[in-house]
Each structure stands twice: as structure tokens, then as C-alpha cells.
């Protein structure tokens, strides 16, 4: 884990990367930086869990073989899949690797993530991240609006 302490402001857009493949990590970091995100990286499964619990990341991109030989050994993915929805709803979670067809909803659903991206489309990563974030925002818009109305009314005394 990085020893550098970094402050996040309310205007920052934090993103968390968990990759074992260095060239994929750099491509993802570069894409997110270009999109205006403040990028953090996790080196291990434990590092990921600590970081994810401390910051409300807007985007999380996870390599299917992060700290594992194959997806079935990916403890980080398993942890995300078993997390209660209220602990991960704030983040658009993207799973990246060789096993997927980009933006196949059923594969994303099976892995309990918002989107899957095939590694062959690394050159389009910036645009694919933008699309995943926009699609997730659109999908959750009605939920967030209803939640704001409920909690907003509760704060006003139930008007």
C-alpha cells in the first residue's frame, strides 16, 4: 500500500484500480486520469479492501485475475460480489479481462458487476469507461431521485 497520504475534496472523482497486469494497469490509469478521476491503485486483496472501505469510489476497475491465477481464485471479486448493495452502490464496478465479451449484460450480471470489458478492447478503454459510468448513472437515476425525495422529506419533517 502506498505510504503517501492523499486528501480528497468533494469535487474529486475517486477511482480504484486492481490489476495484476502492469500494461493494463497503466492503460486504465491513463484513461481515468484523462477523464478527470483521481486514481488510486490496490496492490493486494487486503489493500483493496482497506481502500474500498475508506473512500466512496465512483469507479472501480478490477482485473479478472487480480492477485489470482484465474477468476475463480479472485478474492477481491468474491468480496465485492458478497458485499451488501449499500456498501458498493456508489461505485460503477467494471470487470476487465480475457473471459468476457465487452458490455455483455448477462456476463456482468453473472459476476455482480456493472460492466465487463474484454482486454482486446484496451485501446477503447477511455470511451468504454465513460459509457459504463453513464449507463450506471442512468440506471440508478430513478433510485437516487426516490432516495433523495424520501430522505429529503424525512429531513423536512415528513412533508
Description:
The chain is an alpha/beta fold. It is 45% helix and 15% strand. It has helices at 22-34, 45-54, 75-82, 85-88, 105-110, 125-155; strands spanning 14-18, 38-41, 59-63, 92-97, 115-118. It has a five-stranded parallel beta sheet with strand order 2-1-3-4-5, sandwiched between helices. β1, α1 and β2 (38-41) form a beta-alpha-beta unit. α1 (22-34) packs across α6. The radius of gyration is 16 Å and the shape is globular. The chain starts with 13 loop residues before the first strand and ends with a helix.
Key phrases:
globular; alpha/beta; 159 residues
Q: Rounded to an integer, what's the Rg over CA atoms?
A: 16 Å
Low-confidence stretches: none
Give me the secondary-structure category.
Answer: alpha/beta
Biggest sheet strand line-up: 2-1-3-4-5
Number of strands: 5
- Please report the number of helical segments: 6
What number is the mean pLDDT?
A: 91
Principal-axes shape call: globular
Strand fraction: 15-25%
Reconstruct the topology from this structure.
Elements: E1 14-18, H1 22-34, E2 38-41, H2 45-54, E3 59-63, H3 75-82, H4 85-88, E4 92-97, H5 105-110, E5 115-118, H6 125-155
Helix pairs in contact: 1-6
Amino acid at each position: 500500500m502506498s505510504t503517501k497520504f492523499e486528501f480528497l475534496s468533494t469535487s474529486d472523482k475517486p477511482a480504484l484500480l486492481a490489476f495484476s497486469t502492469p500494461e493494463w494497469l497503466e492503460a486504465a490509469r491513463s484513461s481515468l486520469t484523462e477523464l478527470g478521476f483521481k486514481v488510486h491503485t490496490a496492490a493486494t486483496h487486503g489493500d483493496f479492501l482497506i481502500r474500498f472501505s475508506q473512500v466512496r469510489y465512483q469507479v472501480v476497475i478490477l482485473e479478472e485475475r487480480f492477485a489470482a491465477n484465474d477468476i475463480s481464485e479472485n478474492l477481491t471479486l468474491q468480496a465485492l460480489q458478497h458485499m451488501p448493495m449499500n456498501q458498493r452502490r456508489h461505485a460503477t464496478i467494471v470487470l476487465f479481462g480475457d473471459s468476457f465479451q465487452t458490455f455483455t449484460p448477462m456476463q456482468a450480471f453473472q459476476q455482480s458487476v456493472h460492466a465487463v470489458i474484454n482486454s482486446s478492447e484496451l485501446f477503447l478503454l477511455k470511451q468504454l469507461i465513460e459509457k459504463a459510468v453513464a449507463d450506471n448513472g442512468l440506471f440508478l437515476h430513478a433510485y437516487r431521485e426516490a432516495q433523495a425525495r424520501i430522505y429529503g422529506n424525512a429531513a423536512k419533517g415528513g412533508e
